[in-house]
Amino acid sequence: MTLPHGYSLRHPTEADLPAAQAVLDASESHDAGEPRRHEDNLATEWSDSECRPELDWWVVDAPDASVTGVAWVRPETAGEVTADHYVHPDYRGRGLGEALLDTIEARAAELPPRTPEGAARHLIIWCQKSDAERHASLARRGFAPVRQYSEMAIDLRGELHAPEWPLGITARPFRPGVDDRRVWDADLEAFSEHYLFQPRSYEDWRRHHLEAADSDPILWRLAWDGDELVGFVIPIEGDREAFIDDLAVRKPWRGRGVGRALLLAAFATLRDHGQTVTRLFVDAQNATNAVRVYEAAGMEVTRCFDVMEKPLA
Predict the structure, then answer these.
(1) What is the domain-level CATH number for residue 49?
(2) 294 and 182, same structural domain?
(3) Can you tell me the distance from the alpha carbon of 266 to that of 219, in angstroms, rounded to the nearest whole number?
(4) Whose CA is closest to 11, among 44, 60, 45, 81?
(5) pLDDT tens digits, residue range 227-244?
(6) What are 254-265's pLDDT values in tens digits?
(7) Angstrom distances, CA of residue 1 to CA of 4, 73, 84, 106, 221
(8) Burial (CB count <10 Å: 0-12, 13-18, 19+), residue 231
(9) 229, 182 Cβ separation under 8 angstroms
(10) Is the pLDDT of residue 86 over 90?
(11) Which of 55, 54, 68, 53 is nearest to 3 (CA)?
């Protein structure tokens, strides 16, 4: 690993959170071609019981001591090591990304496996399809695309369809202190078939969805069949653009239009709150055919990503 003269690499402290978040937001804005906030909230990430910034996170300091790069490794997600790295757009082309990738690979090689003996392990990094430089860098290191994700969006200023709830299904707002564990249980069940699914404890689920700084449970909508919670949608507001953090329908109620109705209800609520666009990320090979559900609700693909994978010894 070689950094340009005057640059240095270190593990971050809590005081670095705003600067590190600014790198992610600037990178997202540059890569999307418009001002954006990155979907990862680092303050929430660092509150996770599995997160260890002192071991598995790094920042790059420029000669003027400003944070110009961020990288991290998540030790094990469903038997795989996942990682990511970002360089502020103003500092790209100086070798910082390569240095961060060297660091990620070295740390991933040190991590003890949490999988059964002899089971294959991989290092996984996401890459926007249009980012030819990042693609080439990962390919030189032995990474290959194994799966695709899409960003989808809808302009809330256009005509929105009203939600049509299937017979017997009713929608209600989330009730804090009443529905919490029901939603967590439904989350575990609904996402159990998803790629890289990793069960989360109730406490970690609360940190990410109820206690995060950008959480607003007033926006949540839950679908019920009598006393059975069948699905839910969790939107997050931005300055003008919102994000669908989670949308889930339990298996016995899929294929009946519940997911589409939840999305449309969320769109209407977000528009009433002054949001102009809503986005989400989806696994293009999702077993539940989620892309079709989102398209039926009026969303369109705006960006595509490859999941890049490399075997670990």
Answers:
(1) 3.40.630.30
(2) yes
(3) 7
(4) 60
(5) 999 999 999 998 878 999
(6) 999 999 999 999
(7) 10, 17, 17, 10, 48
(8) buried
(9) yes
(10) yes
(11) 68
Token pair, residue 230, equals: 């069948």
**Same domain (yes/no): 76, 170:** no
pTM here is: 0.89
Look up residue 113 and give its two tokens: 């496996």
Angle, vertex CA 94, rays to CA 91 and CA 95, nearest 5: 120
Q: Which domain holds residue 68?
A: 8-119
Within this chain, do residues 296 and 184 fall inside the same structural domain, yes or no?
Answer: yes
For helices 132-140 and 96-110, angle between their N-to-C axes, nearest 10 degrees = 40
126 domain-assigned? no
Number of structural domains found in the chain: 2
Q: Please indicate, yes or no, whether residues 171 and 276 belong to a single structural domain of this protein.
A: yes
pLDDT 10s digits, 93-127: 999 999 999 999 999 988 877 766 667 788 999 99
pLDDT, position 306 = 96
Look up residue 259 and give its two tokens.
Answer: 């997911």
The answer to whether residue 293 is domain-embedded is: yes
SS3 of 54, please?
helix
- Does residue 111 share a domain with residue 158? no
